[in-house]
Amino acid sequence: MSKSAKLTITPRERSSKGAVRQLRRDGFLPGSISKKGEDAISFSISRDELRRALAANGMSSVYTLTAGKKESYPAMLREIQYAPVTREWLHVTFQAVSLTEETTAEIPFNLIGRDDLVYAGFELLQQLETLLVRGLPGDFPSSIDIDVATMTPGDQVVVADLNLPEGITAQTEEDRLILSVSYPKLRVEEEEAAAEAAEGEEAADEAEAPEGEAAGE
User: Fold this and answer.
1) C-alpha dihedral, 50 to 55 to 57 to 59, nearest 10°
2) pTM, 2 dp
């Protein structure tokens, strides 16, 4: 189940670029709450508070954004804008949600046993990092676990293989590949080269065999 956490926000009016830069220098992040059929609400939030909340509760949780004693908004994170080079957080967008109405969310995968797989000498090829699901906001898991520890080359996981929580449905095709396991490319190339070399040696031995004598006799 998705966790819930409170975040303190400060409503703000749209301001100049200089004011926004100063806001960031002071340790705050400009943000907005999108509400269906209404104008977005602009706010600022402590960058450190937001980082701690996301680290503790995940990206798909329902957060209660509180502005003072009376105003609060249940909302889900929709986007964090980054600086292209420094990856500094520039802006955060939340989407106001109703806890009694279904919505969609991108839920990240949590791969269990990845280190065991790598230690065994196998290569994990992941095609999807998140899964689009639909359900009530309070039912969203913080992540979707996939145990890969005992997988071997040739094994794969598709959307239909997932065990999703009750009330949560995938919005991606059931046969969509999530991940697969194979031998590392270098190992495959080495095995192919060894096989080709063995075939070459066998062909050479047959060519050197005396006339009238079958190879292997």
Assistant:
1) 80
2) 0.73
